[in-house]
């Protein structure tokens, strides 16, 4: 990463379409396997295959519903502060501490990463695994924007 001057004035963070698309492709493939198994009654597991088919169909439905329901822009980082997905603005001067934390997920090999924002008023957590930015890049951008804000305040 090159340095301060190469970070944009504003970074828009959205839901990761790649993750949603990958999940939908995987679930659709599994649905086809289930239909094949149910049609040809492989291993005598027709009802189990149908049950799994509807379970995977529900997963695809939830993913599509989430993609339509959630606002595309989840977070905006800028020299002035943060703009959350609900439109509220948090100035850098109001933020006491901002960090990325990792919570262990014992049922999966994928860890759950959260952006924790402590302000003068409250504490907010953002689930960042589903966003189109890595936690490392997010931490880097936070440092840059915070330094830019502090530099502007001192001048």
TrEMBL record:
Record field: transmembrane: 20-39, 45-64
Highest taxon listed in the record's lineage: Bacteria
Key words of the record: Membrane, Transmembrane, Transmembrane helix
Protein's UniProt name: Uncharacterized protein
Species of provenance: Aquimarina aggregata
């Amino acid at each position: 990463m090159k340095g301060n001057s190469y970070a944009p004035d504003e970074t828009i963070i959205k839901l990761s379409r790649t993750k949603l698309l990958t999940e939908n492709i995987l679930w659709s493939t599994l649905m086809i396997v289930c239909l094949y198994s149910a049609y040809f009654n492989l291993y005598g597991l027709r009802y189990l295959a149908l049950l799994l088919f509807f379970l995977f169909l529900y997963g695809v439905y939830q993913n599509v519903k989430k993609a339509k329901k959630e606002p595309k822009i989840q977070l905006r980082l800028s020299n002035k502060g943060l703009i959350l997905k609900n439109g509220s603005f948090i100035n850098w001067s109001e933020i006491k501490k901002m960090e990325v934390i990792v919570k262990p997920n014992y049922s999966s090999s994928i860890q759950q990463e959260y952006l924790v924002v402590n302000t003068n008023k409250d504490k907010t957590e953002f689930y960042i695994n589903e966003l189109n930015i890595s936690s490392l890049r997010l931490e880097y951008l936070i440092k840059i924007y915070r330094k830019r804000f502090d530099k502007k305040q001192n001048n």
